Amino acid sequence: MRKVSILAGVLGLALFGAQSSVAADDYKSFGVRIRAIYVKPDESTGGLLSTLNTKVSDDIIPELDLEYFITKNFSTELIAGVTRHDIKLNNGFAGSTWLLPPTLTLKYHPLAGSLVSPYVGVGVNVIFPFSSKVNGVNDFQIDNSVGWAAQVGTDVKVAENLYFNIDYKYLNADTKATVAGTKYKLDLNPHLFAIGVGYRF
C-alpha cells in the first residue's frame, strides 16, 4: 500500500510538472489589434494661453497596435495612430494641430490564457505635434514631448486566437506652445479610451 501511495504521488507530481510545462509554453508570442480610440486631451495651460482659455478638442481615430509576449504573463505593446484636434480660444475656433503619439508599454497579464484576461501596463510615450496653426499667428507651434504612460485593459477570448479588447491609457505630455516668439505651457495629457479586436499568432 505504501509503495502504491508513493507511486501515485510520483505520478501526480510528474503529471503536475507536465501540465505546468505545457501551461508555461502554451501561448502565442505575437499579437495585432485594430481599435477605435476616443482621444480626450486634459490640457493644462499657462500665461497667455491660460488667459485666452485655450482648449484642445477631442478626436476619434482608428489605431493599430502590435504586441509581443516575452513570457506568458508579460508583453510589450506598441501603438501607432494620428489624431487631429481643433484649438479653441475663448470658446471659439482658432486653429488646429495634428499629433503623432507612438507609445510603448510593458504589460502584466495575471490571468493569461483565461477566457477573460485583464492587464496593467506602464511605459513611455513620445508626442510629435505637426501642422499646428492658429489664425493670425505666423510662428505658432507646439513642441515635441517625452513622457510616461499608464495602461489598464482586458482581452476577452471570442474564438481561437481572436480577442475582444477594451483598453484605457493615460499619456503624460508636458508640452509647450510658441506664440509670437514666446513659449507657454500647453500640457496635453491625453486620455485614450479604446475598443477593438485582436488576433494572436
How would you describe this structure to a colleague?
There is one protein chain. The chain is mainly beta and 201 residues long. The protein has one domain (27-200): Porin, CATH 2.40.160. 14% of the residues lie in helices and 60% in strands. It contains two helices and 15 strands. The chain has helices at 2-25, 48-51, and strands at 30-40, 44-45, 55-56, 59-69, 74-80, 83-89, 92-100, 103-108, 116-134, 141-142, 145-159, 162-171, 176-179, 182-187, 191-200. The strands form two sheets. It has an eight-stranded antiparallel beta barrel with strand order 1-4-5-8-9-11-12-15. A four-stranded antiparallel sheet has the order 2-14-13-10. A hairpin with a 4-residue loop joins β4 (59-69) and β5. The protein is elongated and about 60 Å long.
Tell me the structural class. mainly beta
CATH class: Mainly Beta
Provide the number of structural domains: 1
Q: Strand portion, in percent?
A: over 45%
The mean pLDDT is 88
Low-confidence stretches: 1-24
Strand order of the largest sheet: 1-4-5-8-9-11-12-15
The percent range for helix content is 10-25%
